[in-house]
Design goal:
Radius of gyration: 20 Å
Number of strands: 16
GO molecular function: mRNA 3'-UTR AU-rich region binding; NADPH binding; quinone reductase (NADPH) activity; zinc ion binding
Order of helices and strands: EEEHEEEEEHEHEHEHEHEHEHEHE
CATH topology of the largest domain: Quinone Oxidoreductase, Chain A, domain 1
CATH superfamily of the largest domain: Medium-chain alcohol dehydrogenases, catalytic domain
Number of domains: 2
Family: Belongs to the zinc-containing alcohol dehydrogenase family. Quinone oxidoreductase subfamily.
Keywords: NADP, Oxidoreductase
Structural class: alpha/beta
Shape: globular
Largest sheet: 7 strands, mixed
EC number: 1.6.5.5
Number of helices: 9
Catalytic activity: 2 a quinone + NADPH + H(+) = 2 a 1,4-benzosemiquinone + NADP(+)
Distance between the termini: 13 Å
CATH architecture of the largest domain: Alpha-Beta Complex
């Protein structure tokens, strides 16, 4: 009998329970995984609180993990028992020692990328990929603003965008986080509790504004982010850690410079096998080359995930967080 973290109702971290759960034989097209490392992401909080509905209740949270293939369902051809694999995929269910997964959602891990590193980077790294390679293809001479620059996605975006030739501005919540962001490619960390990030961005860009803003904070930063953009700049709202953005009239985008706005999700960018393999391949390549270093800031036992959620929501975490089943 294996164990998983289940919720029977939505709410705070206390609703997560460490419970026994049996895993049936994999169906055709599926494999059974023994999971070795699980990634913690803010989307897990959205499911736990009910902002995003789980497919069923009781349900298991978690979107990202690495592990070893232990059994194959019929029709699985590209994987073998013993293969090391990783994923960032729907539906939720990663907070478990074992689970079944569609084989088409898994990617094999290179020998030089550990299970913990994979669990720390799949969702965040492929998010960074669509942000800087697909929504706004960062190029030399660009100036970008990334909020939560010392977080899991933020640190990857800072390094990758810097490698692509951009000037990187990032907001952080402490001096320690500013130093961490700077060590990972952020040219200009802004401590948002001590200075007005909009005024500082305008100062750094000579009043012009940045080419693109990557904003996972949401309500608290959204309007300020629009004011950081150059004329016809791109606003990418890809999360709402501080709450959902309040409704506003689309004409505001015209008033502020003919701005572009998108609200993407990773899963719209890895919806085909080809897209998944492209994102994973590019991510593995920059990690293997040392261009992007994956910072694991915290590790918790999976059964202690309530503390991990509390620390994440209180902004006490940096980099990526890994849960050990």
């Amino acid at each position: 009998m294996s164990f998983a973290i289940q919720i029977h109702e939505t709410g705070g971290p206390e609703v997560m329970r460490w419970e026994p759960m049996s895993v049936v034989d994999p169906e055709p097209g599926q494999v059974r995984l023994r999971q070795t490392a699980v990634g913690l992401n803010y989307i897990d909080v959205y499911f736990r609180t009910g902002l995003y509905p789980l497919p069923q209740m009781p349900g298991v949270l978690g979107m990202e993990a690495a592990g070893v293939v232990e059994a194959l369902g019929a029709e699985v051809q590209d994987l073998s028992v013993g293969d090391r694999v990783a994923y960032a995929a729907t539906p939720p269910g990663a907070y478990a020692q074992e689970r079944n997964m569609p084989a088409e959602q898994l990617v094999k891990l290179p020998d030089d990328i550990s299970d913990e590193t994979a669990a720390a980077m799949m969702l965040r790294g492929m998010t960074a990929h669509y942000l800087i390679r697909r929504i706004h293809a960062v190029k030399p001479g660009d100036t970008v603003l990334i909020h939560a620059a010392a977080g899991g996605v933020g640190l990857i975006v800072c390094q990758w965008a810097k490698h692509l030739g951009a000037t990187v501005i990032g907001t952080v919540g402490s001096a320690e986080k500013a130093a961490l962001a700077a060590a990972h490619g952020c040219d200009h960390p802004i401590h948002y509790q001590e200075e007005d990030f909009v005024a500082r961005v305008r100062e750094l860009t000579g009043g012009k504004g940045v080419d693109v803003v990557y904003d996972s904070v949401g309500d608290a930063t959204f309007m300020g982010s629009l004011d950081c953009l150059r004329s016809r700049g791109m606003m990418v709202s890809f999360g709402n850690a501080s709450g959902a953005v309040k409704p506003f009239a689309p004409g505001l985008l015209a008033q502020k410079g003919g701005l572009f706005l998108t609200r993407p999700s990773l899963f719209h960018y890895i919806s085909t096998r080809e897209e998944l393999e492209w994102a994973a391949r590019d991510l593995f390549e920059v990690v293997q080359q040392g261009v992007v270093k994956i910072e694991i800031g915290q590790r918790y036992a999976l059964k202690d995930v309530a503390k991990a959620h509390a620390d994440l929501e209180a902004r006490r975490t940096t980099g990526s967080t890994v849960l050990i089943p």
